[in-house]
Amino acid sequence: MRAVNRFGWDKFVPVLAVLTLIIGSFWNEKFLTTSNMTFLIQSIGEIMLIAFSMTFLIIAGEIDLSVSSTAALSSCTLGFVWQHSGSIPVAVVSALVVGGLCGAINGLLVTKLGLQSLAVTIGTLALYRGLCFALLGDKRLTPFPTSFTSLNFKGLFGTWVPYVTVLLVVFGVLFGVVLHATRSGRWVFAIGQSKDAARFVGIPVGRSVLTMFIVNGLMAGLAGVVYTIRFASARPDGAVGMELEVIAAALFAGVSIFGGVGTMWAVAASVFFLGSIRSLLRLEGATANELTIVTGSLLLVSVVIPAIGRRIADRRSANGPSLPNAAVPSTTGTPDVSADAPPVLAES
Amino acid sequence: MSVVTPTVSRPAVSRAIAHPFLRRREVPVGAALLFVLVGTSIVNHRFLSTQGRTDLMLAAAITGMVAIGETFVLLMRRVDLSVGSTLGLAAYVAGSAIKDGGDGQLFKAFAVGIAVGLCVGLFNGLLIALLDLPALVVTLGTLYVVAGIQAKIVGGTRITADHLPADFISFGVERFLGIPKLMWIVLVVGAIASVFLWQLRAGRDLYAVGSNPPAAVLVGIPVRMRTLMAYLVSGACAGAAGVLFVARLGGVDANAGGGYELAVIAACVVGGVNIFGGSGTVVGALLGAMLLRSIGFSLSALSIPEFWQQAVNGALLLVAISADRIVTLRRERSERIGAQR
After folding, report:
1. What is the pLDDT of residues A293-340, one digit of tens each?
2. For labelling alongside B246, which of A244, A257, A327, B105 has CA 20 to 30 A away?
3. Best mutation site among A64, A122, A136 for testing chain B: the one with the most B CBs within 10 Å?
């Protein structure tokens, strides 16, 4: 939906994030402290890592619901391999490989068989989670070496900045540049606008989508490693429900679920904004349930406001004399945009 | 001579695919269900004992009830992710409405549960139909909001069987003609929904909208009203399922209904409801729910660790959609060859 961009929601989200920081620091003196910022960044680490690569998929008109299970499977693999090999590097590499494999399975089913990613990843969501339990049973592994888990407590160069910040900045810049400044990035938008058109102009649609799924799996695998370090344990029921948080953050950032629209900076800001709102409310004594309600309401608001803005803009362009050759065909009542776009997901 | 010609014109197709009934999507699902049931009961005789059958049907009834409503939404190429939390909220509100009261409040429980479901459905439907918002985003939002409201009003309290009227609890386990009463309710609702989708104009409209939304607008189908209706049905079914949930388990806590949304969509998809709209039946969705539940029960009857259950369910969903896709591709190919001749 182009209208989302016209309203400028994607530029509004970073402003919201900064406003929250400013208002939050006045509201609660504990908010803008180093310890709370450390905690805040750690708490959004995994979600943001996955959100980077998920943004590519959603812009391309696909979706991956299996990321939380992939992260959990990667975490379980990390524990399992560490237990059997005794080598942390080997374990981390295997965890990432498993993540990539999970993504590859999703991608192959979507690209080679032409299945809908929503259905495929609901299936693999259950499948990968089941494999976690098959691997570890219902127990959790905690015997990680302290040199590995203490990574979480030591800041960078002795400061309060947690190690995960490096990952977030490096991958944020990398994914942002690829999406907005390279040919491959423009392909992603083209695929999201119309797969058929993209195919006709010679974009390797299947290969691009497959790559995006594999990268998304790798990022989910990396998130699984970060998760393991944060909780110093690998558990088969870890990260449950994270897929919805990742998708909620991306959608709040104005990434269109129909594909073709979205920006990386808005996604990064959106994850940060949602995390800081939660942190602020938690400091104010809000319960987890109230935070859930707030997250859901914000998601609804993020689609309702641009929709109303679009309505007003449509009406103004239809009635007003200022736009003589407005592209809007004739009258007010037909919001053509959503009528002909597939409502759930864009697909060929 | 001329009488014979029509049958000769598409020989490959008519020979490759037998009777139209066998081409229906419900047939392989039903066959798989039969295979699981018969196969497991050969290995473990107690699997299909009276108690075993009752447990199985009770479990399938709740998923099935939600799946009926979800089918309406999926047919229109939309989705409703809020059904799980709606079920939980309706279960708690309905449970609270009748707790510490006397017998004979069954109707009240259903009225309250369905009313809660209709409220959520109305909210979803209005946002999606009137503001043209993406269904996935809206229902993901209401999933969170409703789950939060549920957890907030439930708090640390929980409704247990001691608080509920005795006849309500017994309603949850009683059988009629060998089938649990809960399952009868689902079967009756399923039958009504099937006739509606199959025979009534409003029902056929859902298929038309799901097959080709712009065309549906052009031929004058009131797409907004139909969308609103589908979400009201989905909400009402989730609300009613909440009441079945309390009746079966004899209680509710803050986490009731969590995660049902994906299980329900999986059941629909396994049962042949196309996630991109336009095809599928309520019967298929119910069979899908039954099949997924049976496999879970079958694994434990076969002493396979229950850890495998989720993996098997996921794999089954992948097999179902892959098989669908392959059959469609082959049919398209054979029809193309037929057309070329």
Report:
1. 888 888 888 778 777 877 787 777 766 544 444 343 433 333 333 434
2. A244
3. A122
pLDDT of residue B341: 62
The conformation of residue B161, written as its DSSP 8-state character, comes to G
Nearest to B213 among A116, A293, A339 (CB): A339
ipTM over 0.85: no
Q: Which domains does chain B have, with CATH numbers?
A: 25-327 (1.10.3470)
Cβ contact B92:B241 at 8 Å = no
Whether the per-residue pLDDT at A5 is higher than 60: the answer is no
pTM exceeding 0.90 = no
Cα–Cα separations (whole angstroms), residue B159 to B97, B104, B105, B248, B250: 11, 18, 16, 13, 8
Q: For chain A, which residues make up each domain, given as ranges?
A: 2-314
Summarize pLDDT for A79-116 with one digit per residue, the tens: 999 888 888 889 999 999 999 999 999 999 999 988 88
**CB A295, CB A274: distance < 8 Å:** yes
Write down the CATH number for the domain with range A2-314.
1.10.3470
pLDDT tens per residue across span B248-271: 877 777 677 777 887 888 888 888
Option in B141, B217, B309 nearest A339 (CB) = B217
Residue A22 main-chain phi, psi, to 5 deg: -70, -55
Distance from CA of A18 to the nearest CA of B (A): 23
Find the CB nearest A127 among B213, B277, B315: B315
Chain A 127-146, CB below 8 Å of chain B: which residues?
A: 127-131, 133-134, 137-138
Measured between CA atoms, how close is B115 to chain A, in angstroms? 21
Q: Which residues of B touch A295 (CB under 8 A)?
A: 144, 148
Cα–Cα distance for residue pair B187/B185, rounded to 1 Å: 5
- CB-nearest partner of A130 from B144, B308, B326: B308
Could you report how far apart the first and last alpha carbons of chain A are, in Å? 17
pLDDT digits (tens, 9 = 90+) for B179-225: 788 888 888 988 898 888 888 887 788 888 888 888 888 888 888 88
